[in-house]
Design brief:
Layout lengths: L2 H13 L5 E2 L1 H7 L9 E5 L4 H8 L3 E2 L3 E5 L19 E4 L6 E7 L44 H14 L5 H13 L4 H7 L5 H12 L20 H7 L7
Parallel strand pairs: 2-6
Antiparallel strand pairs: 1-2, 3-4, 4-5, 5-6
Amino acid sequence: MDSIHILELQRRLTSKGIGSCFVGELALNYYNVPRVIHDLEICVPAAKLNEAVSAVVNVQIGHSHKYVKCDWAENEINTYVDYKVPFPRIRCINADPGFKLSIIPDEALHMNPLQDAIVKSHPSHAQYSPELVDFFPDSRDLKDVNLPRLAPFLNGFLRKFVASGFSDYNLASWAELLVDGCDLDEAWCKKRLTEAGEEEKAFAMGRVRSKSGRLDYLHPDGPTCFVHNAEEARMVRCIPGRE
C-alpha cells in the first residue's frame, strides 16, 4: 500500500460523484501521531455508502489494482476496530503487500456533512508532519488527498467516547493522541470545538492540561510526547486543517 493506492481510490470515487475523506491511521499520521498504517479507512456520505462500495468492488482501479469484499476474521476483531466492524470491508487482491480498507459513513464518525469536514486549502506556508514520509516522500503531494479537518476529526472521537458512557478507552486514547500530536491548548479547544458538547469539551481540556504527564523521557523538555521542541511546535501549527 502506498500513495498510488490512496490517490487511485479517491479518483475512482470522485469519478462516480462520491465525496470521500481518508480517516483512521492515515489521518492520525497526518496530524503528527506516529502510528503504523495497517489498513485504509475511507469516510463517505452516508447516503452514498452503497454506491461507494459498488464503485470500488470488482473493478480494476488504476493500472492493475482490483478490490473484493471480505469479512472480518474472528482473530482480527478487537476493541481497536469495533467502530468500523459494522461497515463494508474490502481487500486489494493484487497489491504487494496486500491491504484492506473500510468504507465508513460520515454519520458514524460524526463528520457529517462530509464536505464541511475536509481540509479545503493548503497555503504556501503549509508544513507537514514527517510521519507520512514513507507514503508521501514529497509532502506537497498531500494537497491532492482528501483528509479531515482536525476539529471534526477530534470531535468525532470525543462524541463516540462520551456516547460509550466514558467506557471505550480506545476512543479516549485516540483523542489524546491528537491533542499530543498537534500540541493543542485550551484556547484551541474553546475556539474550534464548537460542535462538541460540554462533556466532550471538558474531556479534551483535561487531556490538554495533562500533556506534561505524558512526556517522552528522551525529550522531557518538549511541549508534548510527540512534539519535542519549539521548531516542531511551529511545524504542527502550520499543518493544513489544524487551524
